[in-house]
Amino acid sequence: MTASDGSDTAGQAAPAQRQVEALVIGLGFAGLSAVHQLRERGVDVHALDAAGGPGGIWYWNRYPGARCDVQSLWYSYGFSDELQQEWEWSEKYARQPEILRYAEHVTDRFDLRRDCTFSTRVTAAEFDAGADRWEVVTDTGTRIRARFLVTATGCLSSSRIPELTNADAFRGRTFHTGQWPHQPVDFTGRRVGVIGTGSSGIQIIPMLAAVADRLTVFQRTANFSIPARNRPYTPEEQRSVKADYPGIRVAQRRSHAGALHSGTGRSVLDVTQEQLAIELESRWEAGGTAFMGSFTDILSDDRANHLVAEFARDKIRRIVTDPETAEKLVPRGHPIGAKRICVDDHYFETFNRDNVDLVDVNAEALSGFTENGLCAGSREIALDDVVFATGYDAMTGALTRMGIRGRDGLSLEQAWRAGPRSYLGIAVHGFPNLFIAAGPGSPSVMVNGVMAGEQHAEWIADAIAFLGANGISRIEARRADQDAWVQHVNDVAAKTLFPKANSWYMGANVPGKPRVFMPYTGGFNNYVDTCARVAADGYAGFDLSAQSTGAAAARLRGSR
Ligand code: N01
After folding, report:
1. CA angle, corner 91, sides to 88 and 94, nearest 5?
2. Residues whose CB falls within 8 Å of the CB of residue 348, separated by 6 or more in sequence, listed in order
């Protein structure tokens, strides 16, 4: 079988007409885990992915410099001790090819391919209320009826290219970091433009600068970034983690974000300026996102945040030799960390190179393409290649574009017109038998993504197994419980500085998208406890019903 992007695929062809108990959409880390967990519980499951193979975000993001900024030994599954003992991570922050190899290894090791169909995109999914089943249609003409629909389509999978006029006229090549070609792309000696300075831009820019003749970076918002200081793992580090993996996995679930950085446990405001500088300096030198976990109130107190932001701004001014360029690169107008903190490998140093230019598009607006390049302000910048590192319609884009229709024909797009509403980030009132892995309203993008996906996969698989064992054909989140959860998500976000930035967390990067803070910031540990409590209480907050009792459906839980 050949994928639309030219890659070889191996998986099952989905029969033209099929009925399964659970259909999983998306085979990134959450989806792979869901297939495995459902199968382990004896549920008849099939899975689809638009990609030519497993890996989700790591399948698509093949751009030079793509790597994870969560430590590899943590950014991996905990469901199988054999797996975590046998897999060897080479580096602290693994590169995309290594993470993709891991996803492929898991797929093969657990023989998941026999229940997976790749290169197949869902175009519509409608709930048949008479039968308590989803009717799913794909772009290959397959129709699948499934009792339960599990979407694992990823929070950062719906890539966005901003509308620039005259795009068809451009004679050069264009790329988006999230849809990178499978074949290596040679930028040697070329004039390359990169639009966007988020995590992807910050990773690809130093790589392109090293080979391009000229690199022009188009920046709309300067970003905070911490040096990664990546390095190979030592055998001793691997051994010590593996010796205590079960304990580490428990500790991850008991942590705020699934990473085991230890902080000082103190407020920025309770230490002297000298103590603050020493602590931040040592974390800057150690590298990575542990910098943000140094003090308890960086993301909740304006004054604390300001002091830490000033430290990071000062670093940029010291690294970048041209003061005018440095000032353009100094982030202003948003708290440090309120836009996703970036982690880099010599990003700011790149602007000391003779072949790199920085264009502030606030001063010189990007008006569109010409045959030869891009127009910024009153000038035309000649380019051979344009790389869009312009991000995603995050968290909701993949879900609202899939043609999901719940009870009474209500589309998810309509239901979420004023912003996503969900119960636990897993279920949506009006959409029975739909489970969302890492949906808006869950910790998802605020935590280690493999772990978040795995926890959701387990919870959803348990729920589906419970429903099957109890003859329950329909589960639906109650509106009141959904409203209470949305309120809670908003309340905890309001105690942080996150809503103060125009970030993709807020939907602010997509014109017209409602400004709602989408992920849950109350801590992974608290979230795990809440999910466990809901399940232990017989799926509190959900209406459960059995079709066998007729259209009026006995409310098994309704009267509790
Ligand atoms: O996307 P982004 P990303 N004109 O949305 C700019 C994860 N990730 O792909 O900030 C000019 O963050 C936009 O400007 P502004 C991580 O969670 C992780 O980089 O909206 N510029 C911004 O600079 C991350 O947060 C890793 O003003 C335009 C950039 O494009 C998430 O994925 C690596 C524009 C988009 O940044 C998304 O990151 C990579 C326009 N019209 C990604 N439109 C690691 O683990 C947008 N921009 C390390």
Report:
1. 95
2. 225, 315, 316, 319, 320, 329
Would the CB of 71 count as within 6 Å of ligand 1?
A: no
Could you tell me the residue range of the domain that residue 189 belongs to?
171-220+351-391
Tens of pLDDT, residue by residue over 116-168, are 999 999 999 999 999 999 999 999 999 999 999 999 999 999 999 999 999 99
Q: Do both 408 and 513 map to the same domain?
A: yes
> Residue 498: CB partners within 8 Å, gap ≥ 6?
299, 338, 505, 506, 517, 521
The model scores a pTM over 0.85 = yes
Q: Are 20 and 48 in contact (CB under 8 A)?
A: no
Query: Are residues 519 and 257 in contact, defined by beta-carbon separation less than 8 angstroms?
Result: no
Q: Are residues 94 and 211 in the same domain?
A: no
Q: Is the same domain home to 382 and 402?
A: no
Question: Which residue minimizes the CA distance to atom 15 of ligand 1?
Answer: 221
Cβ-based burial of 354 (10 A; exposed 0-12, middle 13-18, buried ≥19): exposed
**Same domain as 214, residue 363:** yes
| 474-525 tens-digit pLDDT | 999 999 999 999 999 999 999 999 999 999 999 999 999 999 999 999 999 9
Q: What does 354-373 look like in DSSP terms, one character per residue?
A: TTEEEEETTTS-EEEE-SSE
Q: Give me the numbers of helices (H) and strands (E) for the chain, helices first please.
A: 16, 21
Q: Quick one: 398 and 439 in the same domain?
A: yes
List the residue whose alpha carbon is closest to atom 46 of ligand 1.
390
Torsion sign, CA atoms 393, 398, 401, 407: negative
366 close to ligand 1 (CB < 6 Angstrom):
yes
**Structurally, how many domains does the chain consist of?**
2
Backbone phi, then psi, for 214, in 5-degree steps? -135, 140
Same domain? For 152 and 63 the reply is yes
